[in-house]
Amino acid sequence: MSYQVLARKWRPRTFHELVGQTHVQRALVNALDQGRLHHAYLFTGTRGVGKTTLARILAKCLNCTANGQGDEGVTSTPCGQCGSCRAIDEGRFVDLIEVDAASRTKVEDTRELLDNVQYAPTQGRYKVYLIDEVHMLSTSSFNALLKTLEEPPPHVKFLLATTDPHKLPPTVLSRCLQFTLKHMPPERVVEHLTHVLGEEGVAFEESALWLLGKAADGSMRDAMSLTDQAIAFGQGAIHHADVAAMLGTLDHRHVLALIEALADVDVARLLSEVSQLAEQGPDFAAVLDDVTAILHRLAVAQMVPDAVDNGHGDRDTVLALAARFTAEDVQLYYQIGIQGRGDMAHAPDLRSALEMTLLRMLAFRPQGVPRPPATPLPLQPERPPADEAPTAANAATEPAPPSQPAEPVPPAEPPPWATDEAPPVVEPEPEPAIPPEPVNEPEPKSEPAPPPAAEAPPQGDPVPPGRLDHAGWVDGFDALGLGGLTRNLAAHCQLESDDGETLVLRLDPSQAAMQADVHDTRIAKALAANGIERRVTMSAEVLDATLETPKARDARVGQERQEKALDTLNRDPHIQELKQAFGATFMENGVMPAKHAD
User: Fold this and answer.
1) Domain for residue 524, yes or no?
2) Residues 441-485: pLDDT tens digits?
């Protein structure tokens, strides 16, 4: 017996075997069961979604003789065994007239077709005209069809199918009951292929079926044809590597590896993955398209996890990756990817364009440029021989000889909150930062100097020892060393409270859209680096009008310095002479005072 391709062997024979068109199935089954039949049906949709198959099933329902009697015997469940059902399945039913409109576009063909409409059916209950690709008919052919299509004899049904309903005249559309068949999503294709291959006894890898489902592009017939090809290519089995080679598509796992490297901020791994891709000779523009497509799915996963599509069968992987990126990183990477795709036409070659786009994603991230691995340095510098003078490097690292004591250098000024910490910091060598007092002058004990934390904060409440107040937050903000978006958010915060364990920040509501837990973590790490171990929580609330944020303080100080600089310049005698001698005008907008000017 000759081999029958899967697309024909597994073509649905009844409505209940139809895959993925529940909305059409339900409407037709109810109409058949209730006897509410229209005289003209129009089935639309892309190739391979079941338009012609659906029309043939409907023709069997209208003409099945096993489940009905006489003219009232139409059924929604054709038996498939009676003479009419078998003849329709085998393509030899006299009263099913199938017409390919693409090859019979002339008006003469349409008139010849309609000449037999008035005659009663020969074999079945209804005479069914199935016109495929009906949009290919000429204008004259449509005009010849209109009258019959509107008022056909009671024994005639018209079933029209097209992939382009927009080309049909409105007069034809208004005379038909239209059903639009849906694309087949990859999930539905993989589910059906799994069932078919299980029945056929063909071994397969599930990941290979996802490649076939994606390549089918919504067409179940194309999926079946590709499956036939994959079975032949793999010598009776379907393997992922074979299907990828057959389709010539990029292995989706390589793209996920690039996203993993971006999540780990691992530049070396990122370039290594691109190098491995280059060995396969891929289309690097398509690689970048796949990267941006995954970034889009990551953004969806962060906002609405249930809305993530599973077109590649990797939904769980995408959800896990989404948790490793901040929302601003994903949005930035996507924008850079889109921009890089447009710049590829101007790059020396596509591989370098892809690499530069990926590197740009990491270089422009809010956390800053990832640092390259540092070169290990020796723990102890090598001492020069006693008869040689020390080099400049050694002189900088070795302490001064005892015979020539150097003038003591005061230590760097600590942030304002350093004096408020309860646990004292024990120095390895308690060398005083200022010259010691004479021995004969004992330290006064009657009036001890109050500690800096004793000053009342702007709120009027005393600050407990070891706690941070708002003044300390503002004055020591620059010492935190924050950068990027985290610095911008923190600069718009007021310190609400500090109980020694949790530091609560009040964020300006205008910045609430950029708030994320990752910024709390970064601020906590910056505080810990300055000797303050706290858990940080940030919430968007209306700010206290009597307190300044670090951002507002910087703006005020900058304005004061600007005004001071302008006043100094305006009083400068040389500038006054220039004004009088040449009629010069002082350009105040060009004055830029030094950031740390007195």
Assistant:
1) yes
2) 444 444 444 444 434 334 434 445 568 899 989 998 998 988 888
Residues 6+ apart with CB under 8 A from 517: none
Task: Assign 559 to helix, strand or coil.
Answer: helix
Give 128's strand partners: 96, 157
Question: In terms of domains, do 541 and 569 share one?
Answer: no
Whole-number pLDDT of residue 446: 44
d(CA 554, CA 132): 73
- Intervals of the chain under pLDDT 70: 1-2, 67-72, 368-466, 586, 589-598
Do residues 119 and 241 share a domain? Answer: no
Looking at the structure of the chain, the number of domains it has is 5
Task: State residue 330's pLDDT score.
Answer: 93
Distance CA(327)–CA(358), nearest Å, equals 17
Strand order in the sheet with 96-100: 96-100, 127-132, 156-162, 40-44, 177-180
Note whether 167 and 234 are same-domain residues.
no
Asked whether residue 175 falls in the same domain as residue 31, the answer is yes
> Residue holding tokens 């069997």?
60
Could you read off the pLDDT of 497-552 as tens digits, one per residue?
998 899 999 999 888 877 888 889 999 999 999 888 999 999 989 999 899 999 99
Query: Residue 124 maps to which CATH number?
Result: 3.40.50.300
| C-alpha dihedral (177, 183, 189, 192), degrees to nearest 10 | -10
Is the domain of 304 the same as that of 289? Answer: yes
Helices of type H across 66-138:
83-89, 107-114
| Cα angle 18, 23, 29; round to 5 | 70
Distance CA 594, CA 598 (A): 9
Cβ–Cβ under 8 Å, residues 41 and 160: yes
User: Which pLDDT score is estimated for 231?
Assistant: 93
Whole-number Å distance between alpha carbons of 574 and 309 = 71
Say whether both 14 and 158 belong to one domain.
yes
The model's pTM is 0.54
Q: What's the 3-state SS for 53-84?
A: HHHHHHHHHHHCCCCCCHHHCCCCCCCCCCHH
Residue 298 lies in a domain: yes
pLDDT given for residue 244 in this prediction: 84
Q: Of the residues 212, 247, 282, which one is the last residue of a structural domain?
A: 247
